[in-house]
């Protein structure tokens, strides 16, 4: 059976705020219907008793109409976690290739995100020159902004 990457899920305290952020800052686009899901099937699949969630899939830029999506959902009850750090085990960050790292960082900040690192440049042997910075979306998730030259 063939395998195809489908989506990455991001659980948000306020899914609508994060949908607006990723749409306005990175050009993601809502695809498909808004999801309002609940029922025994969801509780069984997620192991979350009485699970109920709402959200939206966003088509990621640069991959066409059938590309992978960023699925941003909020459960009725969202358990808090400590802010992610770059060297924590597990999923680390979302990365976007941008034309201008500084301008993209300014857009992140203007739309409710925050800085994490500071822009840096390096030569990656066999690949090219990289400019990169880590930032946070409005809920503290890490976003990498990278530009290859």
From TrEMBL:
Species name: Saccharopolyspora montiporae
SUPFAM superfamilies: Glyoxalase/Bleomycin resistance protein/Dihydroxybiphenyl dioxygenase (SSF54593)
Domain of life: Bacteria
PROSITE patterns: VOC
Protein name per the record: VOC family protein
VOC domain: residues covered: 4-148
């Amino acid at each position: 059976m063939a395998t195809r990457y489908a989506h990455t899920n991001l659980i948000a305290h306020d899914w609508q705020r994060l949908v607006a952020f990723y749409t306005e800052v990175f050009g993601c686009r809502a695809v498909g219907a808004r999801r309002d899901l609940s029922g025994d099937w969801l509780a069984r699949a997620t192991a979350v008793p009485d699970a109920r969630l709402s959200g939206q899939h966003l088509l990621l830029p640069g991959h066409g109409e059938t590309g992978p999506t960023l699925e941003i959902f909020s459960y009725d009850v969202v358990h808090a976690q400590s802010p992610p750090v770059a060297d924590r085990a597990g999923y680390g960050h979302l990365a976007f290739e941008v034309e201008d790292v500084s301008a993209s960082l300014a857009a992140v900040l203007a739309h409710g995100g925050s800085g994490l690192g500071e822009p840096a440049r390096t030569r990656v042997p066999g690949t090219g020159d990289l400019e990169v910075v880590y930032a946070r979306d409005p809920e503290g998730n890490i976003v990498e902004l990278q530009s290859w030259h």
